[in-house]
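2024-03-11 09:14:02 DEBUG pipeline.ingest accepted 1 chain
2024-03-11 09:14:02 DEBUG pipeline.ingest length=271
2024-03-11 09:14:03 DEBUG pipeline.predict start
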Amino acid sequence: MKHDVDSVRQASYDRGLQGRFRQHHPWCCPVSEPPDPFEEVASSDRYEAAINRSLPISHVGHRFYVKAKADLLLEALSGHFGNLDGISVLDVGCGVGAVQEFVGVRVGRSVGIDTSEPSIIHAQAEHSTSEFDVYDGTRIPFDDDTFDATFAINVLHHVEPGDRERFTREMMRVTRVGGMVIVFEHNPFNPLTRMAVARCDFDDGGVLIGARGVSRLLESAGGTAATSRYVLFFPFDRAVARTVERWLGWLPMGAQHMVVAHPRDRTRGQP
């Protein structure tokens, strides 16, 4: 045991020496960062295959979940706005733009932004009905009140917990009063969801957040009382399954959850 402790101490001491040496002589010991798994798959058609490998139910593919969430998103937008032809929406953390296949053709203007340049290049090549751009992950590159609806699908668990309030405030900022801010996230109470996240390379290091946590964030960011529901209980696309899921929305066992809030009037109380 003493030998093991001494080895650990020596390794730690060596790393400290190396770190201090690199700090003063960075040219001598260049450090190569490990490749980002998401960047590797996002730049090719391996993106969907990588997600499919992580799914615990093999006959259900990534496309099923993308379409299911797009349907839920469009249903919420239609319920609030009615006709979608004239509305503008922003997809924050759009990745390769998979959801735009279903959303971009239904709304007046659809924009996706992401921190991954390879993902944006892929999205631009695949989805001509939407606009895409790279952003720095800090400030959304649009003016206040630009969009009727802003959404993030399975993005928040990639955001450091300390940065989540800023992230959601930015979503609120660019959304018009009377519009919608919608967040989909993995449900940490569902064991199959946790298994899928654990098996997915580019979910490594992600911290899951529950529906109540997302609701509190959106309200703190300037939203009205948020509403939430659990979704994706059944791994098949049938009308009866969707109907039953609406009845089960209160039950915290769906694969994911969906939280909706509306920006409060930011001018209230100002002279």
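2024-03-11 09:14:41 DEBUG pipeline.report Confidence is low (pLDDT under 50) at residues 1-34.
2024-03-11 09:14:41 DEBUG pipeline.predict end
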